[in-house]
Amino acid sequence: MTLFPFQPAHSLEDVVQERSWLIEGLWSDQAVGIVGGEPKTFKSFLALDMAVSVASATPCLRRFPVRERGSVLLYAAEDSLSEVKKRLGGICSAAGVALADCDIQVITAPVLRLDLEDNRCRLSETLEHLKPRLLLLDPFVRLHRIDENASREVAPILDFLRSLQRQFKTAVVVVHHSKKGAAKTRAGQALRGSSEFHAWVDSFLYVRRVGDRLSMTVEHRVAPSQSGICVELHAAGESLALRCVERASEEPPQRANGDLPLVTIERALEQAQGPLLFDQIRSACRVRTQTVSNALAALMAQGRVHKTKAGYQLPASST
After folding, report:
1. Mind listing the domains of the chain with CATH numbers?
2. What confidence score (pLDDT) does residue 261 get?
3. Contact predicate 211/174, CB 8 Å
4. Which DSSP string corresponds to 123-141?
5. Phi-psi category of residue 284: left, alpha or beta, with phi > 0 → left and psi -120 to 50 → alpha
6. Residues 6+ apart with CB under 8 A from 142
7. What CA–CA distance (Å, rounded) separates 26 from 20?
8. What gap in Å lies between CA 279 and CA 106, rounded to an integer?
9. What is the 3-state composition of the chain as percent helix, strand, coil, each rounded to the nearest 5?
10. Phi and psi (nearest 5°) for 123?
11. What gap in Å lies between CA 46 and CA 53, rounded to an integer?
């Protein structure tokens, strides 16, 4: 008999509470998840924007920072290769970088099916060779011939994608459609098919139309969620890319865990002579580690605090 390894809970390794991000506030490091939304809400543009931001270490949607550049592996099942290149080029132009300088590898095979064992093996071998920081698959409906409403058929594919994330330490982004009549349904419940999809995600982006605007919801398994982030498709010269736009009225500052106003951390950073480390912020604010972690995540997602190698600090315009 061969036992699984185990050890007492009290002897488990302590981990740093500070959260790491692939894209700060938008996508956790090495997270699996879904970019979902209603038809014609530019889900593919959003996913490609994430690819460019990771490959160039530039802010996604011109707002959400990326601190570490990484390679990207992309499969776009519905668009021609020339259209993929055109869209990536436009987003790069908006980000102020050259496509040639971005390590984005595109799978050029006409078909990739995650329900076929030989295709899964080839994808695994491709990841083993390239070791990307981000794997992007768009859209899910073109990657299989299963019944998306059947949990027993969906779960093995999602389990396979999770295994890729764990084996190759890569983030996985899957673009997926919403179901019909989901305009007023909560974001996670609006996805088409089995409830397995929403249960699977670590990070989740959902875009829907609110009047004549696009509104994005961000959810994480272990970080604060955000809603009502307004985005628009903007054309400027050769660039065509999504960007965040300001809301007509700002919501009052949120609270992390209901007990620490975000302004408390902002005040501590404002009074500091330079960047503060995580433990220094916790000591200055005299609150629990998880509370500070949640608050910092919310502040970075809103662009009110930046993280550097020296620590956390307010944006230059705020100091």
Report:
1. 21-244 (3.40.50.300), 255-318 (1.10.10.10)
2. 53
3. no
4. HHHHHHHH--SEEEEE-GG
5. alpha
6. 77, 78
7. 11
8. 41
9. 35, 25, 40
10. -65, -40
11. 11
Radius of gyration of the CA atoms of the chain, in A: 20
* Gap between the Cα atoms of 157 and 284, Å rounded: 46
Alpha-carbon distance of 220 to 281, in angstroms, equals 23
Contact 239, 91 (CB under 8 A): yes
pLDDT of residue 266: 82
Question: Distance between CA atoms of 209 and 227, rounded to whole angstroms?
Answer: 13
Cα(43)–Cα(65) distance, integer angstroms: 19
Inter-axis angle of helices 278-285 and 262-271, to 10 degrees?
110
Q: Which residues of the chain have pLDDT under 70?
A: 15-19, 183-184, 247-261, 317-319
**What is the DSSP pairing of strand 134-138 with strand 72-76?**
parallel
User: Structure tokens of 24?
Assistant: 């700060």
Q: What is the rounded distance in angstroms from the CA atom of residue 192 to the CA atom of residue 211?
A: 22
Q: Work out the burial of residue 275: count CB atoms within 10 Å of its CB; fewer than 13 is exposed, 13-18 middle, 19 or more buried.
A: middle
Alpha helices in 57-114 (DSSP H): 81-95
Q: Which among 170, 203, 150, 192 is positioned nearest to 35, based on CA atoms?
A: 203
User: In the structure encoding, which two tokens stand for residue 309, read together?
Assistant: 């190698």
Residue 278: closest CA among 246, 258, 259, 300: 300
Structure tokens at 106: 């595109």
DSSP state, residue 192: S
What spatial distance separates the first Cα and last Cα of the chain, rounded to whole Å? 63
Residue 72 to residues 52, 75, 104, 162, 173, Cα–Cα distance (Å): 8, 10, 5, 17, 11
Reported as half-sphere exposure (CB side, CA atoms, 13 A), residue 35 has a value of: 24
